[in-house]
Amino acid sequence: EFSWRQKIYAAENLNTRWLSGAVDEITTEHVNIAKCRLQLFDLVIADTLYTQATKQILCPLNNWISGKHCSNDEKEVEHKSKSDKLEGTTPHFIGAWIERLRPSFEIYDYARLLSLKQLKQHGVKDL
């Protein structure tokens, strides 16, 4: 009866779908395939480690000496948080949404750990 609705949200968990090749329902196997494919990358750069990865690995590796991301003169800009768009949303709805996107969260967390490990292997110290 509700089978027509299954395709409405087929674009969720895009990182898991992209890395695993999943088209329909995401399974644990898809998550594991995505993690294996991440391990094949030469360097995974997590968003929170972007500055260290570019300045200490990518810039020297490619002989980039100036520019927005390679210059040592660049001052760290404090990130200013935006207002919480979920304020006022029921905890039940937020929990359901998190559960629905769990495969993406799992891949993201794994990518962050892999990025940290790879940066340490490349000699990055200020993590």
Mean pLDDT: 84
| Overall SS class | mainly alpha
Oligomer: single chain
| Helix proportion range | 40-55%
Largest sheet, if any? none
Distance between the termini: 51 Å
* Rg (C-alpha, Å): 19 Å
- The count of DSSP E runs of length 2 or more, i.e. the number of strands, is 0
User: Number of DSSP helices?
Assistant: 5
Structure write-up:
It is a single chain. By secondary structure, the chain is mainly α. The chain is built from 5 helices and no strands. It has helices spanning 14-20, 28-39, 50-61, 91-100, 102-121. Helix 2 (28-39) packs parallel to helix 5 (102-121). The longest helix is centred in the last third of the chain and has 20 residues, at 102-121. The radius of gyration is 19 Å and the shape is globular. The termini are far apart. 13% of the residues are buried.
Topology overview:
Layout (H helix, E strand, L loop, with lengths): L13 H7 L7 H12 L10 H12 L29 H10 L1 H20 L6
Helix pairs in contact: 1-2, 2-5
Short recap of the structure:
By secondary structure, the protein is an all-alpha fold.
Could you name the key traits of this structure?
5 helices; 127 residues; mainly alpha; globular
